[in-house]
């Protein structure tokens, strides 16, 4: 004789805020990735370029790592890819080959505002259904969650 298994209650996917955040986030991220990749860079490279654009004239991979929350290894690989694309210069510090000084090329300085415009356009495409006040409130709520949980790593994927 077969034993009938009791089915336990399980909440529906759609009652979870995380479900809706991921639903929207994945769509926004995928759309943005397609836009920036059309310019020859990835979202991760864009994050590095944008971070460097608003910083000092030159920086180090460890400083970029600290500001983005990415590992030094990940930043090093991204810097190498940006070097190959002619978007950064890298020089070893005199007397200490372990320290590298990196800075954006003119090509990168010209590209970053174009990429920022794509990010703005992507945001408008997805969030224009919200009023200015709703956008502000949503941003504040998300920032509150980030701060409450001490989230540091910048999303790049």
List the helices and strands and how they pair.
Blueprint: H1 17-37, H2 43-53, H3 61-68, H4 72-84, E1 88-93, E2 96-104, H5 106-127, H6 132-148
Antiparallel strand pairs: 1-2
Helix pairs in contact: 1-5, 2-5, 3-4
Order of the strands making up the biggest sheet? 1-2
Uncertain stretches of 5 or more adjacent residues: none
Name the overall outline. Answer: extended
Q: Give the full name of the CATH homologous superfamily.
A: Winged helix-like DNA-binding domain superfamily/Winged helix DNA-binding domain
CATH architecture classification: Orthogonal Bundle
Main beta sheet: strand number and arrangement?
A: 2 strands, antiparallel
Report the C-alpha radius of gyration, rounded: 21 Å
Termini separation? 51 Å
Please identify the structural class as seen in this structure: mainly alpha
Order of helices and strands: HHHHEEHH
CATH class: Mainly Alpha
What is the average per-residue confidence, as pLDDT, rounded to a whole number?
A: 91
The portion of residues forming beta strands comes to 5-15%
Work out the count of structural domains: 1
Number of helices: 6
Assign a percent range to the helix content. 55-70%
Written description of the protein model:
The mean pLDDT is 91. The protein has a two-stranded antiparallel sheet with strand order 1-2. Helix 1 (17-37) crosses helix 5, helix 2 crosses helix 5 (106-127) and helix 3 crosses helix 4 (72-84). It has helices spanning 17-37, 43-53, 61-68, 72-84, 106-127, 132-148; strands at 88-93, 96-104. With 157 residues, the protein is mostly helical. The relative contact order is 0.13. The chain is built from six helices and two strands. Helix content is 59%, strand content 10%. The chain has one domain (22-145): Orthogonal Bundle (Arc Repressor Mutant, subunit A).
């Amino acid at each position: 004789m077969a034993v009938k298994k009791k089915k336990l209650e399980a909440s529906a996917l759609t009652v979870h805020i995380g479900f809706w955040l991921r639903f929207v986030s994945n769509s926004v991220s995928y759309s943005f990735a397609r836009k920036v990749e059309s310019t020859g860079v990835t979202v991760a490279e864009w994050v590095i370029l944008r971070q460097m654009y608003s910083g000092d004239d030159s920086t180090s991979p460890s400083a970029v790592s600290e500001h983005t929350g990415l590992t030094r290894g990940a930043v090093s690989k991204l810097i190498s890819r940006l070097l190959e694309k002619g978007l950064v210069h890298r020089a070893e510090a005199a007397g200490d080959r372990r320290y590298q000084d990196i800075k954006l090329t003119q090509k990168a300085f010209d590209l970053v505002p174009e990429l920022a415009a794509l990010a703005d356009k992507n945001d408008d495409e997805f969030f224009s259904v919200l009023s200015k006040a709703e956008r502000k409130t949503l941003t504040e709520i998300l920032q509150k969650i980030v701060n409450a949980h001490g989230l540091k790593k910048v999303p790049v994927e």
